Automatic annotation (TrEMBL):
Protein name: Gap junction protein beta 3
PROSITE patterns reported in the protein's UniProt record: CONNEXINS_1
Species of origin: Oncorhynchus kisutch
Membrane topology: Multi-pass membrane protein
Keyword Zinc-finger: no
Domain Connexin cysteine-rich as annotated: residue spans: 140-207
Gene: GJB3
Predominant location category: other
Domain Connexin N-terminal intervals: 42-75
Length: 281
């Protein structure tokens, strides 16, 4: 698989990403893939051939080069770029799975039936898949940075190394080709990898924060009070009461009822009545 195929596949992931994911993809292609393909790969070309030792003993230079540079920078970076892009394919596969389920659902229930509002919307299982892909990418970035630091102490490339391995006859001096240029590219690629780690962490916190806010908003809508206390009343008079179990709300004080004539006061006189439930004068 070449770099163009990898770029085409990752471009499909871009439409499901957040703003941090789009920035991460731009950093990967502009500051890592492009620099690796255009410049860095040419700096390390024929690196072992240019590794020179002050001895003519056969095999000495090869043994010393293998000891001090066990893994080439370019091959390690190529492996890193492949590994950090693999978790993004989890999102693509999950979306493809949703689209297939949507297609089968429409065949069974009709063309207008929909199983998902949007197959690419990050909710439910797709949200967890996207979050896990971010954790995997961050872990891979950190692992490769630690591996590079472990192989090359402090990401440094010395100009001269002293080697006494067999089959060297004694301690010999070996010289690395273009050490300053290689050191600059190493620091640049390490810095770009650190930026990608920061973007992944920011996107993780962003997704979790959005999810928490959405759940809190739904909980606030479902937990409505028993009575709407802000509705207009007959006379607009408000009185403090406990109309909700959540907090102290306000309800309205009802106006005095109208006088009602119920029964005669004197049974002997049919024209005498008493007023019940009348308001005080």
């Amino acid at each position: 698989m070449d770099w163009k195929t990898l770029e085409a596949l990752l471009s499909g992931v871009n439409k499901y990403s957040t703003v941090f994911g789009r920035i991460w993809l731009s950093v990967v292609f502009v500051f890592r893939v492009m620099v690796f393909v255009v410049a860095a790969e040419r700096v390390w070309i024929d690196d072992q051939k240019d590794f020179d030792c002050n001895t003519r003993q056969p095999g000495c230079a090869n043994a010393c080069y293998d000891h001090f540079f066990p893994v080439s920078h370019t091959r390690l970076w190529a492996l890193q770029l492949i590994f950090i892009t693999c978790p993004s394919f989890m999102v693509v596969l999950h979306v493809a799975y949703r689209e297939e389920r949507e297609r089968k659902y429409r065949i069974t229930h009709g063309e207008n039936a929909r199983l998902y509002d949007n197959t690419g919307q990050k909710h439910g299982g797709l949200w967890w898949t996207y979050l896990l892909s971010l954790f995997f990418k961050t872990a891979i970035e950190v692992a490769f940075l630690y591996l590079l630091h472990l192989i090359y102490n402090n990401f440094d490339l010395p100009r001269r190394v002293m080697c006494d391995l067999w089959p060297c006859p004694n301690q010999v001096d070996c010289y690395n080709s273009r050490p300053t240029e290689k050191r600059v590219f190493t620091y640049f690629m390490v810095g770009a990898s650190a930026v990608c780690i920061v973007l992944n962490v920011c996107e993780i916190f962003y997704l979790i924060a959005i999810r928490v806010l959405r759940i809190s908003h739904r909980g606030g809508l479902h937990a409505s009070p028993k009575k709407r206390c802000s509705e207009p009343d007959w006379n607009g008079v408000l009185k403090k009461t406990t109309c909700s179990v959540r907090s102290a709300f306000y309800t309205k004080e009802k106006p005095s009822p109208e006088p009602q004539f119920l029964r005669p006061f004197n049974p002997r006189s049919k024209w005498s009545y008493v007023v019940l439930n009348s308001a005080p004068i």
